[in-house]
Backbone:
């Protein structure tokens, strides 16, 4: 048991020494893995950022129902009841034209224009909030058919479209991550295979003098894992650098959509998870490589 | 129980060449046996069957009563830890020094480093190479390399020592020295089998000699 633990320690040390002895080769290896991992990692971060920009309340579809300019308060009361009965409608809020104008007046740059207006050009309106996933288009066409309704505008169709695109993006990122994970296994398989080729005699002699397959495999497994970890850390650095570069551009976008212009650094949890996963995948590549080598020389 | 027992052993290599045919022999614990025969007679093949480096295609090879021809792969390392092997092609590692070559069997067996270092020095001392522990094998003379191989074979204190042409390519004086070494090991109870074409050498030791001829034991 003590010997076993010692060999684990020695194997890790040997793997680190091997990396340190060939810094350029190790860097290039880490770069191959790092760039591959940076793609899904970057995609995750980008998706998370876009999600943060979209106000979450907007995932429940909203629509505005504008009344005829000549609609009376009685019309409005009748419409409120009718609109509330439409399928999927959860909340009906009345926005009188005076209030709409006042809100507009508070908007910077529009105040003077509003002040210069002789009379209120805005109609009374209802803002309907629908249940999540409700058929907004269907409700809109029914509302449009009601008397004294001038125009119906589904405000949040873009949000829904965006949500669908985000869902697609998330799925695509997972596919990408899975493919690049396979790539990582293949990359470590190959580097370990090259290592095995140069250390063929050592492996052969170790076997002849009574080394178990596990003992022979161990240093290579650590080598694979260390490579995966280095690659993942490099990927984190690549994504962080890209985020830092892209943050100013994002600030403009954030203002446009009323989100928070925060920097989009990859969360430490994500880096941690990616590092752990890369270590496991590197180890898998090494495992397969050594097993194939040992089996072919039985 | 014999240390080593061959029962009607045949070995046909992939490709069809029959290196051994109907070999039956017993080596008792504490024996010292010479294995002779012409080049290609099957000496190395016979020795390789004992640590399960090669498997027999017929018959049974028993080591301390265990059928090593049928042994499962995971058990083989433990078999080899009880054997000392000197290879015809030496198999020294030239990317490490003498000490590191000799320590390999102990490291593989999980012996603690301090213990291992002591035993490596004892083995190097026994073959007269204690002052060369930092030397690369390539910088050693032919005889010294051969002795380094012997040190590696005995470092794990095996009960059976198998040496394949341990005196090839070295002069008569050195050969006698090395043979004396094997006799010393045998003197402390190690079973020793030495393959050699040097019939004179075998005769001088007046030990039991098994001669192989085209894969058969010659009478
Ligand atoms: N791996 C192998 N594959 C095929 N044939 C082999 C293999 N190893 C040995 N042989 C053949 O088996 C026969 C016996 O070989 P072996 O090496 O056992 O002979 P040897 O008695 O040790 O000879 P030498 O004195 O030259 O070392 C030879 O004809 C050799 O060509
Ligand atoms: Mg031979």
Residues:
């Amino acid at each position: 048991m003590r010997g076993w633990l010692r060999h684990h320690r020695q194997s890790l040390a040997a793997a680190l020494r091997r990396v340190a002895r060939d810094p350029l080769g190790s860097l290039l290896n880490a770069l191959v893995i790092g760039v591959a991992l940076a793609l899904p990692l970057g995609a995750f971060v980008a998706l998370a950022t876009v999600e943060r920009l979209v106000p979450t309340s907007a995932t429940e579809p909203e629509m505005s129902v504008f009344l005829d300019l000549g609609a009376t308060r009685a019309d409005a009361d009748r419409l409120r009841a009718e609109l509330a009965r439409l399928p999927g409608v959860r909340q009906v809020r009345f926005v009188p034209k005076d209030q709409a104008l006042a809100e507009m007046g508070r908007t910077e740059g529009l105040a003077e224009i509003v002040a210069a207006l002789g009379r209120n050009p805005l109609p009374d309106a209802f803002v309907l909030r629908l249940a999540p996933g409700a058929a907004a288009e269907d409700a809109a066409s029914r509302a449009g058919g009601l008397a004294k309704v001038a125009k119906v505008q589904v405000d949040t169709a873009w949000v829904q479209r965006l949500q669908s695109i985000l869902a697609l993006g998330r799925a695509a990122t997972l596919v990408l991550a899975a493919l690049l994970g396979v790539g990582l296994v293949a990359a470590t398989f190959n580097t370990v295979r090259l290592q095995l080729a140069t250390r063929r005699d050592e492996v052969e002699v170790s076997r002849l003098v009574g080394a178990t397959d596990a003992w022979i495999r161990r240093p290579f497994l650590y080598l694979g894992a260390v490579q995966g970890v280095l690659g993942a850390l490099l990927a984190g650095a690549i994504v962080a650098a890209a985020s830092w570069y892209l943050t100013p551009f994002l600030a403009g976008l954030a203002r446009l959509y009323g989100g928070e212009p925060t920097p989009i650094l990859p969360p430490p949890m994500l880096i941690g998870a990616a590092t752990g996963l890369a270590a496991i995948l590197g180890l898998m590549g090494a495992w397969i490589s050594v097993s194939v080598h040992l089996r072919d020389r039985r | 129980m014999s240390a080593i027992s061959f029962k009607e052993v045949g070995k046909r290599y992939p490709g069809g060449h029959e290196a051994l045919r109907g070999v039956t022999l017993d080596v008792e614990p504490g024996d010292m046996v010479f294995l002779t025969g012409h080049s290609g007679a099957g000496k190395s093949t016979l020795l390789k069957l004992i640590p399960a480096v090669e498997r027999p295609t017929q018959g049974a090879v028993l080591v301390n009563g265990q059928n090593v021809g049928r042994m499962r792969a995971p058990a083989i390392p433990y078999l080899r830890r009880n054997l000392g092997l000197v290879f015809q092609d030496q198999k020294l590692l030239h990317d490490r020094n003498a000490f590191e070559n000799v320590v390999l069997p102990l490291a593989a067996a999980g012996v603690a480093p301090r213990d291992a270092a002591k035993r490596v020095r004892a083995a190097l001392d026994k073959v007269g190479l204690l002052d060369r522990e930092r030397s690369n094998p390539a910088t050693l003379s032919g005889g010294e390399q051969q002795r380094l191989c012997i040190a590696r074979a005995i470092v794990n204190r095996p009960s059976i020592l198998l040496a394949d042409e341990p005196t090839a390519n070295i002069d008569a004086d050195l050969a006698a020295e090395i043979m004396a070494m094997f006799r010393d090991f045998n003197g402390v109870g190690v079973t020793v089998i030495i393959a050699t074409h040097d019939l004179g050498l075998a005769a001088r030791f007046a030990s039991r000699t098994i001669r192989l001829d085209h894969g058969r034991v010659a009478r």
